[in-house]
Amino acid sequence: MINEIRPYTFKNEYRNIEPRKEDIALIYKDTDVLLKKYGDLISFPKISELIDKDLKFEYRFLFTIDSINYFLIELKKIVLLDDFNFQSISIFRNSSPKHLSFAGITGYQLYKWYEKNKYCGKCGTKMYHSLKSRTMVCPNCNDTRYPFLAPAVIVAIVNNDKILVTKYAHRKLSNYALVAGYAEIGESIEETVMREVKEEVGLNVKNIKYYKSQPWSFSGSLLFGFFCELDGSVEIILDENELSMAKWIKKDEIKEDYSPLSLTSEMIQAFKGNRY
Ligand SMILES: [Zn+2]
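Above: the input record for the complex with zinc ion. Below: its predicted structure, written as tokens.
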């Protein structure tokens, strides 16, 4: 999965530190990111490259991978560096090395959070950055904003030797998906599983078992994967607002995928290989 970057180590404890020349600059513009690309290989600018060009910038520490710190950089004016271009963040679905793809998409989630929390949601005053933690604080009403995550479930519904796969409505993704959805206020994550299954495909499930989680920064969510068994009727009642199709497939109808990017793909492969 995209977040599995061994032997590299990701550390995201907040530190109030200054960038060094060898550290990495993550520069975003809407849904684009500044990077250099050779085939599938990507690289980000180093802080030294900004300094060499005498570019004025503001920085925000994001995280560390091994000994390199990653900073969110806001240039005072956008100047393109040699060989670097803005590309859609969807590039991180297929780029390598993997630890840089993970850094790029994780930085994007933090960039979006900072973008959306410049002003206090209660009183509208401009917020300031806490120097002690990754929080935004309102100087007027003291309201404190912590990084936002949307918990969501990915559900593999198993019926003997079959699994229920889906495709999203209004999306071009060709791969199979699983039933999925966001947790609502007031429910446990297991209740989210049962509600989403009922809403999207009209089925009942039992024996809900937690599998694994995955940070999914493309949508700002934290995914919780569950396997469960069909309970009762196999008849699918499709929610056509959410899904374009849902069907039961057998293990031998699933294509091998040796490096699944998403929790969804990994779970479909785990079903195929009886690893759940
Ligand atoms: Zn306020």
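Notes for the reader.
The chain has a mean pLDDT of 95.
The chain is about 15% helix and 35% strand.
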